[in-house]
Amino acid sequence: MVKGMANLKPNNGQRYRRLWGRAKGKPLSVYQSGLVETNLPALCIDVKNPLAGLKSYDNIHMEVGFGGGEHILHRAAEAPDTAFVGVEPFLNGIAKTLAGIDRSGLTNIRLHHGDVWHFLANLPDASLDHIDILYPDPWPKPRHYKRRLIQEDLIGEFFRVLKQGKELNFASDIPSYVDWAFVRIFRHGGFTWNAQSCADWQTQYAGWPGTRYEAKAYREGRTPHYFRFVRELG
Ligand SMILES: C[S@@+](CC[C@H](N)C(=O)[O-])C[C@H]1O[C@@H](n2cnc3c(N)ncnc32)[C@H](O)[C@@H]1O
């Protein structure tokens, strides 16, 4: 288990889960540490009341595991009337994104430094207009599949918090993860995949800036795939 991260109880109260992956990388620069100390508290979501301070926005988007923040910073600049909530347990990713917010002056990003389950616990039903889960940690060995972020109960939570007709976007370069996610999303039954041809999953999302992980996938010869699922009535 990641040091400093407590096991978290999902709001269905059924079981505790572990957070896999890195909580910290190399030491932060003085500038980054300063941002974490001074700027992060004001941008942090209050998980007991996650929509506090977001009511004035037209839409609320969530990005789960935003890594270095390339995508969320780009989307927030594109849509200033939308609130972007980024959820990320990796401190260095938080620090990088804080630096991006500081340099750009963006005011429509909020952060949760921790597990997505923690953020979702008190989030009301049908409160989000979009969810991105871009290149979740692959955990390619079958014995580690249980560590994958996408699991049946998380898909159930995405269905609960997403508004009807809105999109869950999932990108991955790992064929076994794509299969894994599809089986679970279809089994849930609350999402539609409207692809007409393979061009659909080979085509990047509109305005896509790329991410750090994606650049690595290309360098290492893996092909990214982009999926758009629509949350149906339910
Ligand atoms: C492979 S990286 C991809 C980062 C970024 N989306 C990109 O494309 O560059 C996966 C990210 O998911 C984050 N992550 C892992 N478990 C998570 C969880 N339970 N809740 C939220 N984020 C999580 C990791 O810390 C990591 O930054």
List keywords for this structure.
234 residues; alpha/beta; Rossmann fold; seven-stranded mixed sheet; 9 helices; 7 strands; 33% helix; 19% strand; globular; binds S-adenosylmethionine
Care to describe what's here?
By secondary structure, this protein is an alpha/beta fold. 33% of the residues lie in helices and 19% in strands. It has a seven-stranded mixed β-sheet with strand order 3-2-1-4-5-7-6, with helices on both faces. Helix 4 (91-104) links the parallel strand 2 and strand 3 (109-112). The longest helix has 14 residues, at 91-104. It is globular, with a radius of gyration of 17 Å. The N and C termini lie far apart (35 Å). The model is unreliable at 1-16 (pLDDT under 50). S-adenosylmethionine (SAM) binds at residues 19, 21, 64-68, 87-90, 93, 115-116, 134-137, 149, 211-214.
- CATH homologous superfamily identity: Vaccinia Virus protein VP39
Q: What structural class is derived from the secondary structure elements?
A: alpha/beta
CATH topology: Rossmann fold
Give the class-level CATH name: Alpha Beta
Total number of domains:
1
Reported for the largest beta sheet, the result is: 7 strands, mixed
Q: What is the general shape?
A: globular
Q: Output mean pLDDT.
A: 93
Summarize the structure.
With 234 residues, the protein is α/β, with parallel strands linked by helices.
What is the secondary structure topology, with strand pairs?
Blueprint: H1 30-38, H2 40-43, E1 59-64, H3 70-78, E2 82-87, H4 91-104, E3 109-112, H5 116-120, E4 128-134, H6 152-161, E5 162-172, H7 175-188, E6 191-193, H8 198-202, H9 212-219, E7 225-231
Parallel strand pairs: 1-2, 1-4, 2-3, 4-5
Antiparallel strand pairs: 5-7, 6-7
Helix pairs in contact: 1-4
This protein binds S-adenosylmethionine (SAM).
